[in-house]
Write a structure and sequence with these properties.
Elements: H1 3-26, H2 49-155
Pfam family, one: BORCS6
Organism: Eucalyptus grandis (Flooded gum)
Protein name: BLOC-1-related complex subunit 6 C-terminal helix domain-containing protein
Length: about 160
């Protein structure tokens, strides 16, 4: 039974209970009398067997209506609880998926960050050797300049 059918079933039972309540009120319990049907003492008369049976029928009918109402109520509650549980399960699964993807992204970013740091450290080590190379290049440049000057002097001789 889907949610709409359950709702219609619940409304039908509510109407049935209202009608039974009206019947119960309009057909009030019969007047209690003794077997002779007389009440001369002014006290409450003794009920006869027919009156008791009628009263029990009313109580039984009302009890059945209440039981059906409770059955409908519990069915509705069971359905609502099932829907809420299903939604909660879906949301938990979605959260779990999102957390898993986030974890993968964080691990990937951490791995790439470590590679970058290692590359920077290697470059730093390589740059330390560049200072001595720069010094050697300066010395070489001075020597080339001196050689160039000497060649220019030799070429310009009269």
């Amino acid at each position: 039974m889907d949610h709409e059918d359950q709702k219609c079933h619940s409304q039908d039972q509510d109407k049935l209970i209202e009608e039974q309540d009206k019947d119960s009120l309009s057909a009030s319990l019969p007047m209690l009398t003794d077997r002779s049907g007389q009440d001369n003492t002014g006290e409450r008369p003794m009920p006869n067997q027919t009156d008791i049976v009628k009263a029990l029928e009313v109580v039984e009918r009302d009890s059945v209506a209440i039981a059906e109402s409770f059955t409908s109520l519990f069915a509705s509650l069971r359905l609502a609880l099932s829907e809420v549980t299903s939604c909660s399960t879906d949301h938990m699964q979605c959260f779990n998926d999102a957390a898993g993807r986030l974890q993968e992204s964080v691990l990937d970013a951490a791995t790439k960050g470590n590679r970058y740091i290692n590359s920077c450290l290697r470059l730093n080590e390589e740059m330390k050797g560049m200072e001595s190379l720069a010094t050697q290049l300066k010395i070489l440049r001075r020597n080339v300049d001196a050689l160039d000057s000497a060649v220019n002097k030799l070429v310009r001789l009269p």
